[in-house]
Design a protein that fits this description.
Length: 129
Amino acid sequence: MLTEKQRREFKQQLKDRYYDVREEIRLELLRSDNEHFIDLAGLVHDPEEESVADLLVDIDLALVDMHVEQIRDIDAALIRLAEGIYDVCLDCGKEIVVERLQAYPTAKRCTRCQTAYERSHMGHENHTM
Ligand SMILES: [Zn+2]
């Protein structure tokens, strides 16, 4: 179990990361030279906007896509933190070690399950039924 102090630290770390990623998205939108995207950049910047990821779901920019993925991961991690299951592995239900969470604050699986997950999701094609 995480201590209250650890939970606070992870929450702060995730929020900082969230704002960083959001700022990167905003800058990418501004650089896009597309009026609609530049409008969106203004919305992204609004600190009241909770669902930045939903706002950007239709944007067809590879870099933004990658960052939207990161925002979703951070969102999910913050929810797990609020629910008190932040350090519980999604697959096996065991505790994720703090060292792993410190290295990957958005980790949702323990090292063993993550390795298994990546192995089974490697190469989307050629899967036998
Ligand atoms: Zn696990």
